[in-house]
Specification:
This protein is α/β, with parallel strands linked by helices. The chain has eleven helices and ten strands. It has a single domain, classed as Metal-dependent hydrolases (TIM Barrel), CATH 3.20.20.
Length: about 290
């Protein structure tokens, strides 16, 4: 059996190469019936390009009203830090800080998001994908990175505005280039059990969906082993059995949505079923956000 949803897609309005206008037809060719664009917002310096994403989406829906209810407008928001966001709000920087400051903060900085309910209402956002894209001012030590990332994941899993936790344990190659640190997540068994348990309870308690990121984890990043992928999907199956909602995300950044994902969805479905995930079970669906209508 295959699945028919994709809740993590990037366009030319953030760091993707995909022209949004071609997405609906490409998704239909692949049998994807429920999907949404999720261009990045890290800080409010990302706002102009994100506003462009909304304008493009509105134009498509105006020309093709039959897509309403199938094609959704979402956002992927990065875990930043309260320290950094306070500095950015207090200063009118002329530099391009689309990706934030990224360095120099305290190692115990509290994670934070640069959005609120008013922002979601302003842009008519249907759902929020929350992702960790780098460590917050952390030394390149494996245990320190575990703790740093876990603190960010717990913030996202518990955040009232986040609907989907994106690519848990994803590693940004930029970080290795910057400070020489290696991906600490290559051995799934090395992740402390209490972190896995705490995350599971946070997801369940807040009704936050857990993303199975098809593009990055199952097919794209060569440094994740087959053993890691099996363990990762087995953890997702465990979450589903507990009652946690799962979410499917291709994390497409490529120009051709159809070519990039052709064959990947069916293969991913096979791997998921082999790991014990019920493809007829609980998966993400867009729901209204209280206070943002």
């Amino acid at each position: 059996m295959n699945f028919n949803q994709d809740w993590h897609i990037h366009t030319t309005n953030s760091d993707g190469q995909l022209a949004m206008a071609g997405l609906p037809d490409a998704a239909a060719r692949l049998g994807i019936a429920q999907y949404g664009v999720t261009d990045h917002l890290n800080t409010q310096y990302s706002r102009p390009r994100f506003a462009g994403s909304r304008r493009e989406y509105d134009a498509i829906l105006a020309a093709r009203p039959e897509l309403k209810g199938a094609f959704h407008f979402g956002i992927e928001v990065s875990s930043m830090s309260a320290w950094e966001l306070e500095i950015l709000r207090a200063n009118n920087y002329e530099d391009d800080l689309t990706w934030g400051i990224r360095v120099g903060g305290p190692s115990d900085a509290a994670p934070a998001l640069d959005i609120d309910k008013a922002f979601l209402k302003e842009f008519g956002i249907d759902y929020v994908v929350g992702g960790v894209h780098w460590a917050l001012y952390c030394p390149p030590d494996r245990d320190a990175l575990f703790e740093n990332y876990h603190r960010q994941y717990m913030c996202l899993a518990r955040h009232e505005l986040v609907d989907i936790l994106a690519h848990w344990l994803w590693w940004n190659p930029w970080q290795s280039e910057r400070d020489g640190s290696e991906c600490p997540f290559l051995d799934f068994g090395a992740i402390p059990s209490y972190m896995k348990d705490e995350l599971a309870q946070a997801l369940l308690g807040n009704n936050t969906a857990f993303e199975i990121n098809i593009g990055e984890f199952l097919f794209k990043q060569p440094f994740y082993s087959d053993e890691f992928r099996r363990d990762y999907l087995a953890y997702a199956a465990r979450l589903q059995a507990m009652g946690v909602t799962l979410s499917i995300g291709s994390d497409t950044h490529e120009r051709d949505y159809f070519a990039y994902n052709q064959g990947q969805f069916a293969k991913a479905a096979e791997l998921m079923e082999a790991a014990g995930i019920d493809l007829n079970g609980r998966f993400f669906r867009v729901r209204k956000k209280e206070g943002t209508e």
